[in-house]
Amino acid sequence: MKQPLLKGAALIAGATLFAQPALAAPAADAVSPGTAYILNTLLFLIGGFLVMWMAAGFAMLEAGLVRAKNTSTQCIKNIGLYSIAGLMFWVIGYSIAYPGFAEGSLGLFGIADFPYAMQGVGAADTDTGYSVASDWFFQMVFCATTASIVSGTVAERVKIVPFFIFVTVLTAIIYPVVVSWEWGGGYLDSAWGFSDFAGSTLVHSTGGWAALVGAIIIGARTGRYGADGKVNVFPGSNIPLATLGTFILWLGWFGFNGASQLAMGTVGDVSDVSKIFVNTNMAAAGGVVVTIILTQVLYKKADVTMALNGALAGLVSITAEPLAPSVGQSILIGGIGGVIVVFTVPLLDKFKIDDVVGAIPVHLFAGIWGTLIVAWTGDATFVGQLVGVLLTMVWVSAASAVVWLALKYTIGVRPSEEEEVSGLDHAEIGVEAYPEFART
Amino acid sequence: MKQPLLKGAALIAGATLFAQPALAAPAADAVSPGTAYILNTLLFLIGGFLVMWMAAGFAMLEAGLVRAKNTSTQCIKNIGLYSIAGLMFWVIGYSIAYPGFAEGSLGLFGIADFPYAMQGVGAADTDTGYSVASDWFFQMVFCATTASIVSGTVAERVKIVPFFIFVTVLTAIIYPVVVSWEWGGGYLDSAWGFSDFAGSTLVHSTGGWAALVGAIIIGARTGRYGADGKVNVFPGSNIPLATLGTFILWLGWFGFNGASQLAMGTVGDVSDVSKIFVNTNMAAAGGVVVTIILTQVLYKKADVTMALNGALAGLVSITAEPLAPSVGQSILIGGIGGVIVVFTVPLLDKFKIDDVVGAIPVHLFAGIWGTLIVAWTGDATFVGQLVGVLLTMVWVSAASAVVWLALKYTIGVRPSEEEEVSGLDHAEIGVEAYPEFART
Amino acid sequence: MKQPLLKGAALIAGATLFAQPALAAPAADAVSPGTAYILNTLLFLIGGFLVMWMAAGFAMLEAGLVRAKNTSTQCIKNIGLYSIAGLMFWVIGYSIAYPGFAEGSLGLFGIADFPYAMQGVGAADTDTGYSVASDWFFQMVFCATTASIVSGTVAERVKIVPFFIFVTVLTAIIYPVVVSWEWGGGYLDSAWGFSDFAGSTLVHSTGGWAALVGAIIIGARTGRYGADGKVNVFPGSNIPLATLGTFILWLGWFGFNGASQLAMGTVGDVSDVSKIFVNTNMAAAGGVVVTIILTQVLYKKADVTMALNGALAGLVSITAEPLAPSVGQSILIGGIGGVIVVFTVPLLDKFKIDDVVGAIPVHLFAGIWGTLIVAWTGDATFVGQLVGVLLTMVWVSAASAVVWLALKYTIGVRPSEEEEVSGLDHAEIGVEAYPEFART
Predict the structure, then answer these.
(1) CB < 8 Å to A72, chain B
(2) What is the pTM of this model?
(3) Which chain A residues have a beta carbon less than 8 Å from that of B284?
(4) Which end of chain A has fewer surrounding CB within 10 Å, N or C?
């Protein structure tokens, strides 16, 4: 998602297209500007609905990995957060993410007019080379993804009202600020040449930091860690649902990474999108195979939830640069994502950080890995990438901590222990997920 | 879906494209007629498969909201109705929906050659500006959607044979007649300037009236309403499945509304499709947030099934006019859809109308709301819209009543009370949905 | 999928496009080569992600049709096989499938450079008329489909390590060899004019033979066939999940068949894709309606799993030639697919061949039917089609037998009877699918 819409300025690719199509491509490959506009827009629309579908993927993954007594809560959290993200990204998020930083400004915080006006886009906005509304839609679903990541980690012990308040701030301010630094042309982009094609850091690590800080401040689920240091396993209640969620996410990721090419109105762009599809798929495949082999070797059993998280870690790992690597490199990058999952999931438990679905290893640790490796595969420096990782850590952790702590000491974030033990569905929703199925 | 295929006449948009592309758009935006044909067709194909996918959404929503003993029945009803709708819309439905009303005719009923011949379409039918088969496919999935709405309301107490017979008549005749009045260029279109972009009335209210009449004639589920006026709650057996169904429907709605633009072969059309995507999403988001807040405030618990229906009501509400409103208006329109759901779901129970999944509030009441509000946001009069609503009510209610009553007094629509209590899966299908899970 | 990428040679359609666009289409329909390249590539990408999604469909179908104690195993098998298929098709499969047979060679086995290099494709490879990476992606997901078919039949009694080894050989060698004979321009294509548009034989029968041989060599599930010849029914544990899987497969099939047109850069091609969508849908609808009527008449109960398999059999039946038939013919072809399912599912049990999900009737028997009927609807001879069916039978059966037997007599394919009875999830995965739901 290098250089999407800079307000008031024509998109570089779009501008090129319109100014000099004959120079941009050999005559045989020329595409008329009108056709390119339609195709660029279509990429945003297809990519957008695929990434929107990831909201369902997170919902199913999380509904399958929590205990049955918290499943309805997880369902409403997921459909609620997707809705809030859309509203907040319209009200103010987009205007913070793409503020149109003035030259010479540090590029750390800016804000454009809000709520973001898309009224005029029915009439074609041909200067941009694509429909502004299609781009907004595509950007919005990324914002929602960030919030989805948090809901998995802090599941089973956060009340829905404070959770939704956190999501509101995350999608209105915390995430958009990070986006502004890079895709909005701000500090990381201008000062460090930071590179994050589709959001290993901007989306996944942002969600991951917010989740990690939340897990620490909120604390572990009641009974998760015994006094003797024993970790009590709370197995997921519905594995096929979690599997479905993972497949949905894998499917959606073709939109997430592929459409982050931001254009398919030229022969070169659509070829790049194709290569991104292949690399994205192969990184996920690498993550799955590695986790299956590792868990089979280490534990003599192939762990299905590890395999699912292996797929996701592979996907997150390739997200910072899904175009430049060869197929072999993509498999390797994704495979190492799988290794990270296998070894860091138990590590978090050592520190008594209770991550219900494994979102921190998948989205944060693999996101960092994916971001740093761009120094090898892509057009970036290790230092620049590290600065991006660290700046995101500092901002997202600090801002999230402020919000979680404010919630904790005002309305409270946790249900009573009694409510938690009886299940949030009973306490918060009043609708059981599986009212007819007897419990073991 | 204003003015889709009028048989024997070139589509207005298509004709413009072919006759005078240079005038229709500034030179920079020109798209060749061949390219426009491909892109228009592609919109129908993508929109078509997204709306086809909604059949799965209804199946999951309903499978999740019925009791476990009726889940297999609901599954076969949904895959069956989608299949029947396809067959009947080919045999005769399409020919009734698009009869090519002669000038001066009242435009209330007509019929073209049937079964609808698509044999010639392999050879490109370039006059239309799109593939005729792609348009038929897109129209067919709308017909199936109408039938899906009915199956949810009358679930758990209708035998499959009468249900499938009803679906046959609905998709062959009842729904196509309504379509002919508006999209087929008939009475509502020519005499009243009725406006229904993607079918708040034509699809959703039609399904809703058929469902309402069915619910009244068939009667409530055994034990639903106590002698003392008490409503016995029969909770849905699988909430994550219902959540999945809602997400599927939301995703499919981008095709439902977006592709009802009927063209993306111009810069203006694809920009309109993009705006429709945004408005559709935001109306659903408005519906969700409103239902969560309202149920939290009213009942101190956020009701997950209400939130799911809030999303759907938001979607139905924006369907009559998803292009003209601003983003803010869309949120408002969808949010009021959510209000309607929260207040009319209990209302139906007051009248002992037993709507298992809440399809009447969602599809009928929000459909009427969405249709009437076009007088504010779109290009229509309140009276014209009201006439459309009322005419649809009269025709669909009367025709549905005839069919349901004929079934009731011939082969019968309900299983015996004993069969109903033991579950339709046992009586009708012989395959339990969850044979291994013990019941509470 | 007639004539996809022949390495070293320009695709016929692409070559035509580039050499003489003005001659290929009337002036009004002309599409510039660059635009055609983008649209052809886009077809592969959309078709590719839809077929990728079928991997989730198989996973859900199988997870729903096995007993709960084997559900997690089925989940990991499905995500694992999709991953392995991707890796192996890259390492060597594609190079075997499209070896570029020399003229005069028999066309039975060849191999090109491997692993398949897609590094150069970021730069547009305009001679082909589409992105090479997009074509590879589309071909890869077909390879994965073949493996998915096997996993359903041999479910519940194969350990995961031998299963994954079999998948490795199947996707690396067995399937690619079959593909090379036809889509790779080999023996069946050059010597017999064999016709298999999207893979009734190449994909579905190949998977079906591998499954059949596996079922025979591995043997039936413990307790499936009583000493007295009685068949013990092991009902599927989650019917809505199986229904969801079927809907996913139906949706994916629009990509499977539609994108096998291999181009949509001309008005004629996109019209053909549209007709394929319609025929594909109607064949499935025919399969569903026929199975519902037949089971209702024969058993007085409409069998939901039969209806699901009826949809799939209809889809498999139309896959060998989804373009040429009329709509009526498509319904008939699919409907006969449904008949095949109803009568051959019990037949297999007579021979004590234990096919857990009914994949052999659906993919093998309906695949043969679909292949042979092309002699009526398409451009092929009955003898040519029969030779294709038989050659595939001989090769796939023999090669599969070698692999299954080698596994059986080395590492073993079955868990101990005790492990099988307690469930593979316990023995192999250590993660139960539904740990909280009490069993009946």
Answers:
(1) 239, 304
(2) 0.95
(3) 83
(4) C
